[in-house]
Amino acid sequence: MKQRAPLTLAAVTAALAAATGLAFLTAPAATPADGAGRAAAARMPVERSVLVCPAPSSSDIAETTYTSLTPGKGGGAGTARLADKDGKAVLDLKEPGKPAAATASGAEAPALTGAAEGALAPGWTAQQTTKVSAGHARGLLGLACTAPGTDFWFPGVGTAKGRQDYVHLTNPDDTVAEVAIKLHGPDGLLKDKPGTPDPVYDVAPRSTTKVSLAQLAPDSQLADATAHVTARSGRVGASVHVAEDGTGADWLPASGGPADTLVLPGIPADAISVRLVAFAPGEDDADLTVKLSGPTGPISPAGKERLHLKGGMTETLDLGDVTRGEAGSLLLAPADPKKAVPVVAALRVVRGTGTKQELAFVPASAPVGERATVTDNRADDKTTVLTLTASGADAKVRVTASPGTEGGQGTATEITLKGGTTRAVTPPPAPSGGKGPYALTVETLSGGPVHAARTLTLPHDGIPMFTVQAFGDDRSTVSVPRAAEDPSILLR
């Protein structure tokens, strides 16, 4: 029998990168030859990142802005490009620390996929912001382009009359992805007729498939449900486009989790309606405490201090105008730490009055971690609000504003947060002398964890059109284990 050659660290790393497409790693220094010990685990910069962005709108009057940034300073070779399914470039980034922007109009703007390599890969971030001034899907729709994956939770979807929710599935790869979607309502899993197989959707290579959730449950009128999207083969980017009669449209990103403790950051100060939608994926029930983190610390909303979730069933909690003039973040935690149950959650948030209302969504999100970025911020007065929450211990962060896409000088400031509090930074740092959209980067310097969100408001005809995007760790580095002598560690 022919003996296989031993795998090297570089070979294993390359194989993993080829399988995931998300990151290539630079190998750490070799272990000393004298056997003084194994090489310690190291944080290494990724050398390749992949992002996908869904088709922004089906409206002929849609106006979309794409923005992109890799944090840091110039230096080192690299490329970062978002392109359509035919490979035509829509947005190119030239160097770290300098954002780029592009625009598209109408319903023909395509879904985009892209990759960043070399010096532009660590922390590469992209955003699409679409303004639709009229019609059923009118509103400001914002979404961070996401890394492809295989498992996504969307609490907050609906199939009720007047609601149109579509799951956008974008495949960045050269092979077909097979994707299943299941809906969980207040009575549990919505099932097809007995004997009918679960629907599976084929997403062609480098393309997007759009699935109507109402067609998945034609006999149900669900105001609130939870969608579970899983890739049975391949991988996709997944986001939900929501349009609702009377309150406009926005994107619903996937919730973080499942986890037993969640933070939903960035509820606007003037929200007139906040509704929590939560789901416990397993068979166990979950009992949660509900608190609002504000400028002076966490408080329990009167009469809304607890939420009981039955396993496998979607539950809602109407919090009304819970912020009462001060921006905040919602904190969910197990009522009994000894009986912690993982859950997913999101908020449906409405601003405005009468016929001039607008909705957006705030899903549970991960902490900032070492560093996180949101692009497409505007320097106009009150257009951009940055919300920072120290959900545990006191924390200090650095907030950096990049130059504008049309020039200017970046700025930075350090902010100290008291544990349990939320601070609305209005206005947030902005570039000096800059024009065009810019990026905000938040770095955790000490303490924490810190959660952050950006609210962008672009009013139109008296409607406070807005969208909220959370900051999530940009995964610019990867922990490389002590594998110099034993590359099989990477395969565990």
Descriptive keywords:
492 residues, mainly beta, five-stranded antiparallel β-sheet, 3% helix, 47% strand, disordered N terminus, disordered C terminus
Please state the CA-atom Rg, rounded to the nearest Å.
Answer: 22 Å
Mean pLDDT: 89
Q: Sum up the overall morphology in one term.
A: globular
Count of β-strands: 36
What count of helical segments does DSSP give? 2
Strand content: over 45%
What are the segments in which pLDDT stays under 50 over at least 5 consecutive residues? Answer: 1-37, 484-492
Question: How would you explain this protein's 3D organization?
Answer:
The chain is mostly beta strands and 492 residues long. The protein is 3% helix and 47% strand. The protein has helices at 9-20, 213-216, and strands at 42-45, 48-53, 63-69, 78-83, 89-93, 100-105, 112-118, 125-132, 139-144, 151-157, 163-171, 177-185, 188-189, 200-203, 207-212, 225-233, 237-244, 248-252, 262-267, 273-279, 286-294, 297-299, 306-309, 314-320, 328-334, 344-351, 358-363, 371-377, 384-390, 395-401, 411-417, 422-425, 438-447, 450-457, 466-471, 477-480. The longest helix is centred in the first third of the chain and has 12 residues, at 9-20. It is globular and about 60 Å long.
